[in-house]
Specification:
The structure is a single chain. The strands form two sheets. A seven-stranded mixed sheet has the order 3-2-1-4-5-9-8, sandwiched between helices. A two-stranded antiparallel ribbon has the order 6-7. Helix 5 links the parallel strand 2 and strand 3. 38% of the residues lie in helices and 19% in strands. The chain has a single domain, classed as Vaccinia Virus protein VP39 (Rossmann fold), CATH 3.40.50.
Length: 267
């Protein structure tokens, strides 16, 4: 079965996945909002791609009432939940597929996405769509995991642990470390190579651990992709939480920290 069909069915039918999406509160998106806050001056319209239950878009709209915020998600079930539970004057929700967005070119001042792109197969198609609908001089803001950071794998080695689905045993960390390091070295030459992977859609252990991801996200791949399109890269990494260490890594070692890409479209 086509991977897109399998994913669509999973997002529609998995009760565990739906429950997780609906459990997210404002606090879960605090750092996402903090990142967006740096780029809202003069903005009028924002699109939040992969909004899930709508909590992320509601959090944005609550923080920035001057923005008209639209949240889209591929799951009609989650959009139904969003429409029933999140209400603000300048807030709307729509079912939408990020690979084929029903918006004209240059429609939004800001296009954002939180923990979404790693769950999309053939990522380049989506990125071109997101870039297309940003207004000249507008921003694309992508917050999410950095699966290809050797820093996390080194930590796993030191702590004698492994992280499924990226490793299945502690010994696997060593081959994973070589894989991640070589990927980054080649990325420093400007290469773009989004690594696809087969997702685990069993609902057994993957919830919240990205076993359902289909792309091993890497800050450097996204940086190179947007730079090739002549977009100005304004930020590369942003911490997921409020830990002091996370903020230091994002500031001093952005290729090793959690993803927080901000790029500006050429005027």
């Amino acid at each position: 079965m086509d991977i897109d069909i399998r994913l669509h069915e999973y997002f529609q039918k998995s009760i565990t996945y739906t429950d997780l999406m609906c459990s997210h509160t404002y606090n879960y998106f605090a750092n996402y909002i903090e990142l967006i806050n740096n780029y809202t001056e003069g903005a009028t319209r924002l699109l939040d791609v992969g909004c899930g239950s709508g909590a992320s878009t509601y959090a944005i709209a609550s923080k920035f009432p001057f923005l008209h915020c639209t949240g889209i998600d591929i799951s009609p079930k989650l959009i139904e939940f969003a429409l029933e539970n999140h209400h603000l004057k300048k807030l709307s929700f729509e079912v939408g597929n990020a690979k084929s967005l029903n918006y004209p070119d240059n429609s939004f001042s800001i296009v954002t996405s939180f923990d979404c792109l790693e769950h999309i197969y053939n990522l380049e198609v989506v990125l071109y769509e997101l870039m297309r609908i940003v207004k000249p001089g507008g921003y694309l803001i992508i917050k999410g995991p950095n699966h290809m950071s050797p820093l996390y794998t080194l930590l796993d080695i030191v702590l004698f642990r492994h992280r499924y689905p990226f490793t299945c045993s502690w010994k696997d960390n060593f081959s994973r470390l070589i894989f991640e390091s070589s990927h980054l070295v080649l990325g420093l030459t400007g290469r773009v190579n989004f690594i696809s992977r087969l997702p685990d859609l069993s609902d057994s252990i993957q919830i919240g651990n990205d076993a359902d991801a289909v792309t091993d996200m890497c800050n450097l791949d996204l940086f190179n992709f947007l730079k090739r399109a002549n977009w100005k890269i304004l930020n590369v990494s942003w911490p997921r939480g409020n830990s002091y260490i996370g903020r230091i890594v994002s500031k001093l070692l952005p290729l090793f920290g959690s993803m927080g890409i901000v790029a500006r479209k050429p005027p």
